[in-house]
Specification:
- The chain is built from 11 helices and 11 strands.
- By secondary structure, it is of the alpha+beta class.
- The chain has a single domain, classed as Ribosomal Protein S8, Chain: A, domain 1 (2-Layer Sandwich).
- A 7-stranded mixed sheet has the order 2-3-4-10-5-6-7, sandwiched between helices.
- A hairpin with a 4-residue loop joins strand 2 and strand 3.
- Helix 2 packs across helix 4 and helix 4 packs parallel to helix 5.
- The radius of gyration is 20 Å and the shape is globular.
Length: 339
């Protein structure tokens, strides 16, 4: 497919300008732009510029509040509850992870719940912020119906990612950020827009038959990882980020691309804590932990046993030196939104 190149900083300014055109403040536009650019740099294209038009559509339909009055309720020195007032998810998550970090630095642990938010991109992006402050973090968010509970034909749970971040003895953090579906929904949407097939074994059509057609998968059911175990984990995330926080849950989160009947009201839960809560030699212990795993005998074709986050870090470093490639479809989106 034909691609044009734009320098990262120029592209970021364009996105900021677009978000400001749709009513976001300069600060909120910059927060949102940084998150989208990060997704492109780590190769998570389903969470990057392919979603820009969707965010702007929802702002124009008053489903994302460009001028939110976000309320932070302090429940204790460690615990905060945020009403995001239907803000764009990037802004709600940015405030939440910063508050969770602040709370953990004061008391050892930070627990922040968010309601009335929207899609916030990559959970790992926020985990990295906590890890840079030498904190361990766990992050949960629910999402629109995509995955069927085990034994059901109809989707109800979102892809509901689980994210865990921990400092290591190197500059590369341990970041596990994985959805509870075989592949994330963003990849299916990108495949649908580009008329490409999806892998076998990741989705069913609306009749419950296996499909590699991305469009049929979007109107059908995505399969969870590990069968009933993945279904159970998706349910767990729905409880933690939806039921617990006061946000939508049990299939009530609105699909940002197709459902314009109201705001998404997504929920997030951010947990951060110090590495020295129980031991004073965390750094040497995590170094030993990773070293022992990496020294294991390797199967044929594997040069190095990688821990979660290493590949993403390498992609980021490699892509950061290059210009972000803009597909023809995304270029059309940018041109349309700039009018």
């Amino acid at each position: 497919m034909e691609k044009d190149n734009l320098k990262t900083e120029i592209l970021k300014k364009e996105i900021v300008k677009i978000f400001k055109k749709f009513g976001l403040s300069n600060n909120h536009a910059l927060i949102s732009s940084n998150a989208l650019i990060n997704a492109e740099l780590v190769g998570a294209y389903g969470h990057g510029l392919s979603r820009l038009k969707m965010y702007c559509n929802r702002i124009s339909k008053n489903l994302i509040n460009p001028k939110p009055k976000i309320k932070i309720k302090k429940l204790s020195q460690s615990i905060s509850h945020i009403d995001a007032d239907n803000s764009i998810g990037f802004v709600a998550a940015d405030i939440a992870i910063k508050r969770a970090i602040q709370n953990a630095k004061k008391t050892g642990i930070g627990l922040v719940a968010v309601k009335k938010s929207g899609h916030y991109g990559l959970s790992g992006y926020y985990a990295e912020q906590a890890v840079k402050k030498n904190l361990i973090t766990m992050i949960y968010t629910n999402a629109p119906p995509a995955v069927a509970p085990h034994g059901a034909l109809k989707s109800l749970f979102g892809t509901n990612p689980i994210c865990f971040g921990a400092p290591t003895s190197s500059k590369i953090p341990f970041i596990l950020d994985t959805s509870m579906s075989m592949i994330n929904r963003g990849k299916i949407r990108v495949a649908a827009r580009n008329n490409k097939k999806i892998p076998e074994g990741v989705a069913l059509d609306k009749f419950g038959k296996p499909t590699t057609d991305a469009n049929k998968a979007l109107y059908g059911v995505q399969l969870p990882i590990a069968g009933y175990r993945g279904s159970g984990l998706a349910w767990m995330v729905d409880i933690l980020s939806g039921v617990l926080t006061g946000a939508n849950h049990a299939g009530r989160v609105k699909d940002p691309f197709d459902d314009f009947t109201g705001p998404q009201n997504i929920g997030h839960l951010f947990i951060t804590f110090k590495t020295n809560l129980f031991v004073n030699n965390y750094s040497s212990r995590i170094k030993d932990n990773i070293k022992r795993v990496k020294k294991l005998p390797k199967i044929k074709g594997i040069k190095e046993i990688m821990y979660p986050g290493q590949n993403k870090y390498k992609r980021f470093k490699m892509n950061f030196k290059k210009e972000i490639k803009i597909s023809t479809i995304i270029k059309k989106d940018l041109e349309f939104l700039k009018k």
